[in-house]
Amino acid sequence: MHTRTAGELRAENIGEEVTLTGWVWRRRDHGGLIFCDLRDRTGMTQCTFDPEHAQGSAFHTAETMRPEWPILVHGTVIARDAETVNPKLPTGEIEVLVDHIEVLGRSKTPPFQIEDGIETAEDTRLRYRYLDLRRPEMAEKLKLRSDFTFAIRSALHNRAFTEVETPALFKSTPEGARDFIVPSRLQPGSFYALPQSPQLLKQLLMVGGVERYYQVAKCFRDEDLRADRQPEFTQVDIEMSFVDQDDVMGALEDVLADAFAQVGVEMPTPLRRINYWDAMDTYGSDKPDTRFGMHLVDLTDVFKGSKFKVFSGAANTEGHVVKAINAKGAGTWPRAQIDKLAKVAESFGAKGLAWIAFREDGSMNSPIVKFFSDEEMAELKSRCDVEPGDLVMFAAGPRLASDEILGGMRSHMADALGIECEGHDFLWVVDFPLFHWDDDAKRYEAEHQPFTLPHVDQLDLLETNPLAMGSCTYDFVMDGFEAGGGGMRIHDAELQLKMLEFMGFTEERAKEQFGFLMEALTFGAPPMGGFALGLDRVCMLLAGSDSIRDVMAFPKTSSGSDLMSGAPSAVSLGQLKEVSLRLM
Amino acid sequence: MHTRTAGELRAENIGEEVTLTGWVWRRRDHGGLIFCDLRDRTGMTQCTFDPEHAQGSAFHTAETMRPEWPILVHGTVIARDAETVNPKLPTGEIEVLVDHIEVLGRSKTPPFQIEDGIETAEDTRLRYRYLDLRRPEMAEKLKLRSDFTFAIRSALHNRAFTEVETPALFKSTPEGARDFIVPSRLQPGSFYALPQSPQLLKQLLMVGGVERYYQVAKCFRDEDLRADRQPEFTQVDIEMSFVDQDDVMGALEDVLADAFAQVGVEMPTPLRRINYWDAMDTYGSDKPDTRFGMHLVDLTDVFKGSKFKVFSGAANTEGHVVKAINAKGAGTWPRAQIDKLAKVAESFGAKGLAWIAFREDGSMNSPIVKFFSDEEMAELKSRCDVEPGDLVMFAAGPRLASDEILGGMRSHMADALGIECEGHDFLWVVDFPLFHWDDDAKRYEAEHQPFTLPHVDQLDLLETNPLAMGSCTYDFVMDGFEAGGGGMRIHDAELQLKMLEFMGFTEERAKEQFGFLMEALTFGAPPMGGFALGLDRVCMLLAGSDSIRDVMAFPKTSSGSDLMSGAPSAVSLGQLKEVSLRLM
């Protein structure tokens, strides 16, 4: 319908006859003329209606038009007067003098302004998502997502990966999160499950000889939705066979660097690799943002003889530590503000928070410092590089728990202090422990997933110290977020069964849930490993957003509702009866 | 792990040291040597173990290896003896003299041969799909699908289409097929539905200003599965706004031609467009294969005065016809074989089948020819271009029903006669009727879908002759299959409501199901239209397969079962209770 887009006209187009389509954005009447900013997805062009120039009823039609009406205009590109040139706008040197207009539709007054940076409640934006998406900043985010998705597909396709679609209606194998279940009408009483990931299917594809697989896969988890989770999300799913871990990680770095480069982001390779325990030790996180310091400092040896029993107790207990971080600048905070940090620390599992504020005047403010010896204080200051204005915070207790508390505080303080991070931060965290202890279920659970290959030289630790067992795993960390995760897989049926049994599966239950996988592993499964990239999260980070909802066209609320369509909703009794179900 | 693939070695690689990985395909022991055909996804290389050459225990290891074991070999590329060169094999000039072998896994004896062209029952192949996919012909089909999918994505991306992911958990709007429903745990008693297509969502994206959208979208229909339907299937979903029908069809031709060209298939543009009624008239099908003739011939006027009452009755009834097709070659069939055609015709809605076999000796065999006058026979022979050996079949009755019977017979006879079709056949069938009459529901139903734009100059026919109303629609027909379908959409809320009401929706039900769409249309919806390409079917045709199951990695049976994983399966009472359901 149009010959040009609203974003592309420049001074060199002056004199050209054009047809444009788009929405009336703003309309101004001035000096007997009507000015209309016409918006399409590429940008905006000022269209001018002059009663002397407009043909037939065009000027009259222009008088009736309202914001958000879709229109078509035909006219001539002319130069703007010098004083009305808008240097901020790509099309700011020109306008279109309209001779003809066609109204393509009409619009009620939208419930919010179609503008960037609006303060409208998110629920309203979700209710009228189709209007929200008209806002240029939202349109740009959708486009960025499309571009990055295409970039990573291209990077994979060009490296001889085969895209394979795996089924969405699959078997319920509840572990980790809850499955969404789908009743079968043809087999009453039976259910499909929507996949939490294509993990099992991609391993079967490796058994099937695909060798290099990828898929941009919709995944489903019926979890209680935390602030930034969605019941359905998308991952770029990758798997390779006849490979070792370095093969996979090298291929992934190559693919990711290519994809990021295509959207203008440089990811230098080879990526840094940080061992899981080192990451916990230094950053208190298995997904550290390394663009700023505030490292965790180990002071265990310093406080072995301390009069402060909380510290000396920890320092003298096997597996416990005393550690600290130094939040530079927060030492000037008023006492009341510092006191609130205890609550924050509690949210990361602490029972309280020990701290020392080093005031600018050289004094100290702290509930605990009175217990410290001069030597302890001197060593603390030295190791933590203390200067006036610093706030040192402590954690004392079991190593991992202490690291997690300080890791949480490190992130919190970086936000609170407004530490600016330039560019993006990419790294691998590798060699996660194979298991963690689930205190609710009273059993060992897989840290990554039950199909992860252990460090095979540590298999004897299974009997003696399973928590010390490492795994062939690698998480891709971007800007302090877990942006992807991967690992090598068990490709031996016996080892797989042994691992499942160790995690509390009876042989019967293991076979019921994963029998088809274990059977497949008896038919010559090759060594294999892979990866899944959290597409929503990566796009969120690329877009500079703080919620994955911003990079999804139609996200759901934290109760799983689509406010626009009203889903989920009641279904008819007939629909339920067809699948042999009734409501409880 | 490997330095080369098993498909790439040629004479010029002779002397090279290589590491290969793959599966043991065939193993032969001959003259004190062991020969192993090593297969990976790129091809096959013969690996030779010579006890004089193999290092350490390599020869001994080779003695243990069995078919389908994954192995790694290291060795030197050498020339085959002149008499063992295999010109049929790309790697047939060379072999690899192995010095080292590593067994990467072991395999039980597979339940069927990993070979092309096996006769194994499909259920067995589906049960062990991971073994079935190792067969080169299946691997090639998966690769073709991946390549074509990437090709069409590229074609769209390069034309400034934006890929947008729409939700899989959406609102149940049952119409057309049944929805799969998904109970919500967070909102007990409420259900999501898996989308039958992203139709409503893509229209909302147009209201949202996306302008050019695409998605390779998983779609779900809970139908009784006919031979070649699947509960989930994939369509390339496309929508454009600020366009007229020629804009959309032109853009689609351009995209499709580009995508087909990337997989080596020429689709000449502009595509032929056949009006729906012309297609029915000439081919008795709205998805004709035009690579062969056997056109429907209208003989209504010929039999107006016929003594054969079945024909003259139809010929003198308004809206009824007498038509015929000429199946050349079938006139030599024995009577018993011809008689069986009546059953076939019945499957297309006929009550019986009138026919004339013109024997090679000039005689005629027919139950009805005795009623024909000489003039009728002469005119019949002339219009149907009758020669000895032809079989002419008739249909007499309502126009559309008669066309459909003969269209069905035309396809059947083309198969039965083994008519060879060269290359692919692409065309548009356009201007479908807006409605058909549903005799079960006793109401008009949308021929395409309820959101299709009618021919706006025919809106007055709604009152007088709705079945004569045309619609702005276009089906993409490939090799006699409906490979895609599209249309312009209603972008006016009032017209949309009017159409839904005409199709028997109360205003209340229309608003309950489609209120969010109609509300969106009140906020300045632009003119829009789009398309959906049936990816499974197109890939099936490109692969030369006769079932879409061949181009899906993990298809389901006609009862909706995944024979490999056992889905669908029972779920625990706990899982049901969490979603407040019980079995009936």
Of all chain pairs, the largest interface belongs to: A-B, 120 and 120 residues
Oligomer: homodimer
Rg from Cα of chain A: 30 Å
Total number of helices of chain A: 17
State the CATH architecture of the largest domain in chain A.
2-Layer Sandwich
How many structural domains in the coordinates of chain A?
Answer: 3
CATH class of the largest domain in chain A: Alpha Beta
Name of the CATH homologous superfamily of the largest domain in chain A: Bira Bifunctional Protein, Domain 2
Percent helix of chain A, as a range, is 25-40%
Indicate the low-confidence ranges of chain A by residue numbers. none
Largest sheet of chain A: 8 strands, mixed
Distance between the termini of chain A: 54 Å
Shape of chain A: globular
Based on helices, strands and strand pairing, what is the structural class of chain A? alpha+beta
Arrangement of strands in the largest sheet of chain A: 6-9-10-22-21-20-17-11
Mean pLDDT of chain A: 95
